[in-house]
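ok so for the tutorial part 2 we go from a plain amino acid sequence to predicted structure tokens. step 1 is just haveing the sequence, like this:
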Amino acid sequence: MALTALPSDCLLACLARVPYADLRNGIPGTCKSLRDAVTSAALRKTREAAGWTEWAVFAASINETANCYLITASGAYLTAPRPPVSNWHTERLTGASGDVVALFQPQDGSERETMRAHVYDPRRNRWSPIAPLDREFHGAAYSGFGVLVGVGSVGSRLYVLGGGFDDSDESLMAFDAYDVATGEWSSLPKLDFESVYTAAIEVEGKLWCYASQGLEGKIRIYDPETGLWTEGPDLPHELFGIDTGVTKHCNAFVREGRFCILAKFRGGEYVYAFHGEGNYSYRTFAWNPTSEEWDENPFPPPPECATRCSCIDDHLISFGSEPVEGVNFQNPHDLQDYQQGRTTRMYVLAPGDGARWIEWRLPGDSRRISTRVAAVRLG
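step 2 — the prediction. this is what the tokens look like for a chain of 379 residues:
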């Protein structure tokens, strides 16, 4: 009897136990009914109920012609070629049909290029465009945002904070949202702080903004249900490099239901090698809402200083190119290794593993300083 002749619940139960690589590489070339079943929301729910949900790390260099990958513990899989868009910002969105990855390329304010952005659906291995964001500052029209922008996501919505092309309050306090479910932008009331490279993460359905020059060590929380901003806890220590806008070593995520931060903080045993002055420590903290205090070292920092982090099902993914003690930029050999990605690593900390960070192999062309990563559920 043909597989497609099975009752739909039996068919889904069978497909739910097929590894993602086989679903993606083998099923699509069979027939339309199986292709539809593989990409359906019903299959995703069946896999979750059966405990067969899989996830991967979407990884790609910022170069718009570079390959994109879905990386699992067992190997890396090339995605369909991406459209001409570089991933300055890479965000995971969660909708009714499952997770997608959104890639954003800021607009060049000097050339007034149109913003470019696309969404990748891992279940269909398909890309689709995001409509440009139309804005106006001081009577001038812009189709997008500048490089100072902050980007975050809650559920199926992307949030764009600031991102104007000058240092005026109007452009630094702009606030817009894109809903991947409807494909539409909406303009929101302006921010109550100036957003400069603001970093943001979803925590229990709210947007936590935790690193920005305009916040000065404070956390601001946006509730999409009420449209209101509230104050969150202050960061446990002053961030290292925040005064220059360099927040690449400040990452936040939700693990075991708590807001966690992994960052370079001012003061400590390491010296900033680039200038030979200033010092920092590299630590992890988790916010305890019951005691309203920060718990230090809920898990150990990764072996490499994390440029980017992502967390899914309490698996923490750390991507970085720089040793915790820094790079010796005065040593030509060390500098070349760093610039060419030979020091780039990705580590995963599984729940319950304590201090056991496991290195996952990166494809050669994703071992770049400019690579962006985002964990995504495959279904």
